[in-house]
Amino acid sequence: MELAALIARCRQGDPLAWEVLVRRYQSRVLAVADAYVGDREEARDLAQEVFLRVWRNLEACREPERFEAWLLRIARNASLDALRRRRARPPRQDLPVESAHALADPAPSADARWQDDARRRLLLQALDALTPINRELIILKEMQDLPLEEIADMLQVPLGTVKSRASRARLELARALRDLGGPPAAISEVLGS
Q1: Count of alpha carbons within 13 Å of 164, Cβ hemisphere only?
Q2: Are residues 61 and 4 in the same domain?
Q3: Which among 33, 64, 24 is positioned nearest to 143, based on CA atoms?
Q4: Would you state the torsion angle of the CA atoms of residues 193, 139, 38, 170, taken in this order, to the nearest 10 degrees?
Q5: 125 vs 113: CA distance, rounded Å
Q6: What is the pLDDT of residue 191?
Q7: 21-40 pLDDT, tens per residue?
Q8: DSSP conformation class of 138
Q9: pTM value?
Q10: Domain count, the chain
Q11: With 60 as the cut, is the pLDDT of residue 186 above it?
Q12: CATH of the domain at 69
């Protein structure tokens, strides 16, 4: 179904249209939230919060062709709010590493899943080492594949600034991966894409 028609049906209160819209974009919203907060469960909660905000403010999206950018802006803002709240609260006491093994799922995991998880953890560690603006550019451009023009609009900076910052962000990410002992293939992938 065309996005404009889907949004129109959602505005009319059609629950099936809303379900289609959520299913279409839930993985993108979850990926944005996860990239910012680095915690899958918290990202799921944020995704629900984002779609609640979207439902309440759907009338504010005047241009259906810009819906995705609008949605991801809401996801970004909700994630930044969550990070601010996290900094304002004292951290929960972490479990010692020795205890973490007892909490792991006893079901055997596939080698491919393990490698994906290892790459994801390495990437999240490398992202944490970046400056905030470079981290945000990597999330928006490389992980969410947003066009540079939309990123410039979202961050309210000139397009040329986004281009140069994105280039510097990729270099900083490659350095962070190298410093963390990332595989050369991962570093080459960051620099070559």
Answers
A1: 4
A2: yes
A3: 33
A4: 50
A5: 18
A6: 58
A7: 999 999 999 999 998 998 89
A8: I
A9: 0.61
A10: 2
A11: yes
A12: 1.10.1740.10
